[in-house]
Design a protein that fits this description.
Blueprint lengths: L3 E8 L2 H11 L21 E2 L8 H12 L11 E8 L19 H14 L4 E7 L6 E6 L10 H4 L2 H15 L18 H19 L18 H51 L9 H27 L5 H26 L6 H10 L2 E5 L5 E5 L5 E3 L10 H24 L8
Antiparallel strand pairs: 1-3, 2-4, 3-5, 4-5, 6-7, 7-8
Helix pairs in contact: 6-7, 6-8, 7-8, 7-9
């Protein structure tokens, strides 16, 4: 049975909003964003709400003002882009493999009704059906305004609410033959365009570094003089030694860069493999993604081969000191960054241990336990692992500080609750 697919992404800046507007409305000033669109598509794209195709930033700002939101920080998330679709096999297709016209379908209308009922009709500022790519899909933009007229993407779109959103959407799409995917899946949905671009850059650079180079030109000795041959010999030896030292340093620098790219590609390659499995079901939106994925995979293999070679050299007894030193440097950088992240968290409200773990996960870290049952932090991108004793926010152990932060958060919530129950008025004498 095909899967119902719903994805969300934050719109944080005006530049992001304008780029999304250009992509979704196929504006010519954004040709890079519509490379996968089929200009000869037999069925039209359709906008259901924003018929004038105003830019998303203006729409969101207008809705926030209309709702009377009193507090909008400069870094507040102004909007959420929601992609709604299903796995490709769930759509009716002709003999040529193209999907049928869904622009006036009950499926499209049910998607629109779902968002309006879930988040409020006024908060849905745009709803666009794309039919010029492999699989019909919808790009909707909504303002994350709560029932209390506050702007809070974190309240409406957190790990718990997103899991419920997946369930609710699947139920709404059940009449159309779609079902929910696996709940609590560990698969991470990274933006494919960013991932492919990163892989392509890394693989291209590795290929450049490992391409056979032309032999170094032979040393040309100057003609020896009739007199002063000892000085001539010393001068020529110094020149040759300097050139050899330069070549050796260039080779060493090349090895360090290859090691760095190989390490980066190791984590990213696994993500590409996960995307391969998901592409035909949950990420099959872009007609050109299949070709792009194959190309990205080939490029990743270059990095994999380099990493394998270095692993074999290490197994055969080579020291690879530069590689080891680089790894140690990267790990120390990640430890310092994790310490900084935790320090920032401890200055903000933390409800409990689960809330702390959720915030860490949002920052790119996992909290697990080792074989001895002790807590460890894992940096998802690099795989760097740290014992809790290695992370000393503010130069102190993390446990007591986290406990104090949770207690402070609880006390603040109680104080606020009591104040609201008393009415919170200020008497004038």
């Amino acid at each position: 049975m095909p899967y119902a697919v719903i994805r969300v992404a934050k719109i944080k800046t005006q530049a992001h909003a304008l780029a999304a507007t250009g992509h979704n409305y196929r504006q010519e000033q954004h040709p890079h964003a519509i490379g996968n669109a089929d200009r000869a598509a037999p069925h039209p794209n359709r906008e259901y709400i924003n018929h004038e195709q105003k830019d998303y930033w203006s729409l969101l700002e207008a809705r926030i003002q209309e709702a009377g939101v009193k507090r909008v920080r400069h870094d507040s998330v102004r909007g959420m882009e929601v992609i709604l679709t299903g796995s490709p096999e769930g759509f009716i297709r002709g003999q040529d493999g193209r999907a049928a016209d869904y622009s006036k379908s009950k499926w499209a209308q049910d998607n629109l009704n779902f968002l309006k009922e879930k988040f409020g009709a006024q908060n849905v500022v745009s709803f666009t059906l794309h039919q010029d790519e492999k699989t019909p899909h919808i790009h909707a933009v909504l303002a994350p305004i709560t029932a209390k007229n506050t702007l809070s993407a974190d309240q409406l779109f957190n790990p718990k609410s997103l899991r419920q959103l997946q369930t609710d959407y699947a139920q709404a799409m059940a009449p159309h033959g779609f079902e929910r995917g696996v709940e609590h899946s560990q698969a991470k949905h990274d933006p494919m365009q960013r991932l492919y671009g990163l892989e392509a850059q890394h693989a291209q650079r590795v290929a450049e570094l490992t391409r056979p180079t032309a032999p170094a030109p032979a040393f040309q000795l100057s003609d020896p003089p009739l007199l002063g041959r000892d000085e001539w010999k010393a001068r020529e030896e110094a020149r040759i030694n300097a050139e050899l030292a330069r070549q050796a340093e260039a080779a060493r620098a090349q090895l360090v860069e290859v090691a760095k790219l190989a390490q980066a590609n190791t984590a990213a390659a696994e993500q590409v493999r996960v995307l391969q499995k998901q592409l035909s079901t949950s990420e099959g939106l872009k007609q050109g993604n299949f070709t792009g994925l194959q190309e990205a995979t080939k490029q990743v293999e270059v990095g994999d081969q380099m990493f394998d070679k270095m692993a074999v050299r290490y197994a055969q007894g080579e020291d690879l000191a530069d590689f080891r030193e680089f790894g140690a440097t990267v790990r120390e950088q990640e430890r310092a960054e994790l310490t900084r992240v935790v320090e920032g968290m401890l200055t903000k409200p933390v409800r409990d241990g689960d809330d702390f773990q959720a915030k860490l996960q949002a920052a790119g870290y996992q909290v697990q336990r080792d074989e001895q049952g002790k807590g460890i932090f894992i940096h998802e991108a690099s795989g760097a692992t740290f014992k809790t004793t290695e992370i000393q926010p503010n130069g102190k152990a993390i446990g007591p500080q986290l406990t104090a932060t949770i207690e402070r958060t609880t006390q603040q919530a109680l104080t606020k609750s009591k104040g609201q129950s008393r009415g919170g008025g200020i008497g004038m004498g």
